[in-house]
Structure formats: structure tokens, C-alpha cells
């Protein structure tokens, strides 16, 4: 199906009563409603003419109490909220809301470091604290602890962790290093997780669980709360730190490299999250590298011979890995020797390392790889955007997870390379290694001012989602446009996980106030005024792959598509989840019989379970006991 431009319908304005209530609670300066100011919080890589994710207003609370007030006002006026901490995850939509007309809740003003506990190596921060802010705070206080950081340091420490972001120290699994959350629930009440559920508990940020079910995971990649503070684990400053590098000369060396690294990660000889990069991506952020046009100016993606030529010119391998070691100097040396021995099975492999004193790395490390593996944030990788797409370039990140096996990496690369090269895009993956898995990030570069180029990248994305899911690989994080498409691929048990998540959403947030549609999770019912909360249709699957009752786009004489390609309000069900179900093929008579069979079977199992109970009600009178038994029998 050809690319369909957005309908660009006018965004529903914020009701006056709600706007006045927000101003009364926060002050005039903390409530933005003018289009010029609200537009500053849109998806920075979206085409300027698209308005699918435009907000009605932005509110900026500065305290927990103000967050609670915002949530209660939104609930009273049935105004959907979309929360962001810094909103810098630009390849995934930035701060843009899933539902147009939402009120964006910016937590940038909540930017305090509340506690530094050097003895137990943790901090307590608010969601507006950036990686830059935390690093500067620790340095200014002379604290001998390091925080993990991603490649771009302008994001929120909490926000990145809640979205399952990744860093490159021993604490690189950012979601796992959160310990103890404070959250505002959809009704405006305050909850603390883990040991924090006990007033005055002294181990809240030292022990990640509490008493009973652990709720922390419900608030990650979630629209069930607004997180207002969190404990974040750090690592003690090591005596010695080594920033290492590995180069292998051939494309086919990658699976051998992966399989050789796996034992080193499992036994923790390799301590951090190593990253493997393609020569194109590495050259894009190097000083003195030729431009993309100088590397190759022909049609389609850069061919392999040009990639190898660039690698030789810049002193790179065909695959290039960074890694880090920490500890005493003797331990670091022993680990490096073991790594060299394990990788010696690859002909032509080159392993290097630069050692730093832990206390001096902040002043002596100049290379971005050495900095980020010591938790020193930067913005150096931003240069890749202009290298690929010119000034003002943008990109989408397509991030999949596979087992840490060479055969799986080869399969993922073959699928993505085939899809991207067929669309004329370069495939220059970045791979981040965990102990048992590998996160493969494919960048889809484009110039947002070029609507066709941008639309081509957006149209390709759901095709990648389906292709990888069909091979058994899932996306762990995605752009707001494709949250429903990714959620559709997690289909075990007729989408049992999504149905479970939506039952939780229905129970805690029945009106869909907080981050409606995030991760493809919608509420069961919504009032007519929420009709705009429909899944996007401009990137619908091809007609051949999924029957759709929606009208096909018509084409004008000039080749452009009409603006009326979205379903009219009369074609949309009363609530977004029902509309999503319309896009599923009908199960047919056999499917209905199967559902009826399952329903009857569940009723039979329930009856058997109840009848099997040894119910012994207290003896009161014969009539009461007989009535109780009769009710059980009817079940």
C-alpha cells in the first residue's frame, strides 16, 4: 500500500475549565497552551507538516504535590496526560504523545539529587535529573562512585531506566539498577514500592523487593503511574579502569566473535556491556572521516567493497568492539590476558586496551568510548545524523533482542539487511551485549524536511517489526507510532500479556488518563470525546497482509493522496481498543465455536473447583446451611 500522509486534523483544544485549574495549581508560567510553545515539545524527527502527535498543552510541575494536583485535575476533566522526564529519546518520538490532543506533563523542573549514599553506592533522584546533572553533582561533591550513562547524556536518569535504556558500565542494565520507586497513581494517590512501603524504612534503596508481590516492574514502560523519585545504584570508583577495543577483519568473523565472547560474559571476565559497531556508524562520528557522499555516491546502500575501503582508510576493522575492565591493576591485567587468549581463534583479530587510574579518568580520558564506559556523558554521537542525512537529519531506531549466539546474530542481520537494502537504506547496526542476549539497533536515517524520505522510513518500520517477529525476534522499545504494531507481535495465548496489562489499566486508570496507548495498552471504555484516541492509520499494513474494512486511499491527479484517508468518526468504534479489534481478520464460524468451547470449559473447571472445596460453614441453623450448599451446587 502506498504511503499515506497524515490527515492533520485540528488538535482538540484544552477545555477552558481544565486550563484554569492547571494554572491555579501550577502558576501561569508552568502551563503552556500557545501553539508556538507547545510545538517545541513535538517529535523532533517528524515531518514538520505532520500533526498526529501534537499536544493541546504542556504542564510543568515542580513538586510531587503538583504532580498529584495535575493528575487529579486531569481525572476530573477527563483530559489525557502524556508524561516525559526529559523527552530526549528522539529516535523513539521524543516527548510526543501517543494520543493527539493530550496534555504533556514535563518533569524537567523536578531536577533535584535528593541523596548521595557513597557507603552503599546509590543516589536518590527526581525524574528531571539528566545524566549530565548527576555526573556533575557527583564530581562537585568529590564522591568516589560512578554512574552509568548511555551514549547521549542529555536524557533523564529515571526516564531512560523506565524505558529499559542501556549504558556501558557494570550497571549498564539501567532498569535493573533502579531500587525503590515513588509513584503517583491515576487517582492522584502516592505509592512507594519495595521496602519504601514501610514508613521510615532504612533499606528502601538498598534492597529491591519488599513484602508481597513486587510492583516496580508495573511502572516501567508503563502508563500506570508517574514516577516522581527513584533510587539508582552506582558502582564504586575502581582502582584501575581499562577501556578496550577489538577489531576483526572480515564480515563473516562476527558470529565467531559472538560465540567467543559468550563464555567471557557468562563468567564475568567481561564486566560491562560491550558494544560492536559497523564501520559506517563509527566513521560517522570520527574526526577526519570522509562524508557519506565521499564514501559512496551511487544509488542504494553503500556496497561492501566501499565499506572495506573506508575501514582500511580509517584504521578500523570490519567489526569493531569496545569493552571495559574494572578492579585492581592485577585483576584487570589478568582479565585482559584471558580475553586475548579467547579471541585468538579469530585470524587477524586485534585487541587493545588503555588503562587509567580510576580517580584520574575524568581528567585524562578524551575518547568517547573511554568516557562513556566510565560513566562520563557526552553528545558526540549526535554527529552521525548530519553525516548520513545532512544538517537537521533525523532517524528511527529499530531495536530487537536475540540470544547471544552467533547463528542468531547472523539471522537477524540477514533479515534486516535484506529489508533495508531493498529500501535503499544503509544497514549499519550497533550491537550491545548482555550476559545472555544481544540488543541489535538498526538506524533508519532520513531528513525530516523531506516528506517522501521520512515517509519511506516510517512505512518500512512496521514491515521490519513483522519480519523479525516472524523469525522469533521481538522489539523491546519503539517509536510512539508503532507501539500497537509491536504489541501485536507479543501474541502468545491470544495476546494474553496485553489482555492482562489492559485489565490492570482498566482497574487502575479506567478513564485512560495516564499515557493512554503507551506500549499498545488501551482502556476498555472511553467517552465519546475520546474518539481521537484511535490507532494511527497512515502506516497501515499492506492490504495483502491484513484485510481491513477501512477505505482505500484515493489518488489525486497530481499523484498526491487525499486528506480523507482516515476513517470518519462514524467508522470508528466508541473506544480505541474496539477499533483495534476491527483490524483483525474475522475468526469465522470455526473460531467462534472454539471460543465457545473454551468458555464452556472454563465454566466447567470453575464448577469442579468449587464443588471440590471442603466448605464447612459455622453451624447456625439448618436453613442457612442448606441454602449455602444449594448456592454452591448451582455454580
TrEMBL record:
KW Oxidoreductase (keyword) present: yes
Region (Disordered): 542-595, 611-635
Keywords on record: FAD, Flavoprotein, Oxidoreductase
InterPro entries reported for this sequence: Cytok_DH_C_sf, FAD-bd_oxidored_4_C, FAD-bd_PCMH, FAD-bd_PCMH-like_sf, FAD-bd_PCMH_sub1, FAD-bd_PCMH_sub2, FAD-linked_Oxase-like_C, Oxid_FAD_bind_N
A Pfam short name: FAD-oxidase_C
Top-level taxon: Bacteria
Residue ranges annotated for the FAD-binding PCMH-type domain, each copy included: 51-237
Listed cofactors: FAD
Biased composition (Basic residues): 626-635
Keyword field contains Flavoprotein: yes
GO MF annotation, one: D-lactate dehydrogenase (NAD+) activity
Coiled-coil features, chain-numbered ranges: none
UniProt GO BP: lactate catabolic process
Stored PANTHER family: ARYL-ALCOHOL OXIDASE VANILLYL-ALCOHOL OXIDASE (AFU_ORTHOLOGUE AFUA_3G09500)-RELATED (PTHR11748:SF114), D-LACTATE DEHYDROGENASE (PTHR11748)
Protein name in UniProt: FAD-binding PCMH-type domain-containing protein
Organism whose genome encodes this protein: Streptomyces sviceus (strain ATCC 29083 / DSM 924 / JCM 4929 / NBRC 13980 / NCIMB 11184 / NRRL 5439 / UC 5370)
